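User: quick one, sequence for these tokens?
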């Protein structure tokens, strides 16, 4: 999940290349994208899957939850909501 610096906006997505995709969001390579428009430049939550199908299922599941659930999920992994882009572990 990517967050705006203000934490007002969250973006949930899936990728096979987390570091590369985060870089694209942070550098706003697509200026018309959701993350660029809402300045979602902080990686605040991620989960690794061996199977892309499972990752897509998780993305859909997360998108169905309300904001309070997503906030709790981020806080459980990342209590200070810091940018984790330079701390990615598999």
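Assistant:
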């Amino acid at each position: 999940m990517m967050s705006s610096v203000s934490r007002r906006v969250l973006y949930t997505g899936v990728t096979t290349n987390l570091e590369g995709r985060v870089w694209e969001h942070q550098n706003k390579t697509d200026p018309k994208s959701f993350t660029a428009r809402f300045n979602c430049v902080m990686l605040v939550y991620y989960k690794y899957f061996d199977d892309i199908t499972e990752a897509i299922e998780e993305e859909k599941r997360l998108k169905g939850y309300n904001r309070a659930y997503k906030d709790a999920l981020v806080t459980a992994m990342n209590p200070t909501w810091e940018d984790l882009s330079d701390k990615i572990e598999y």
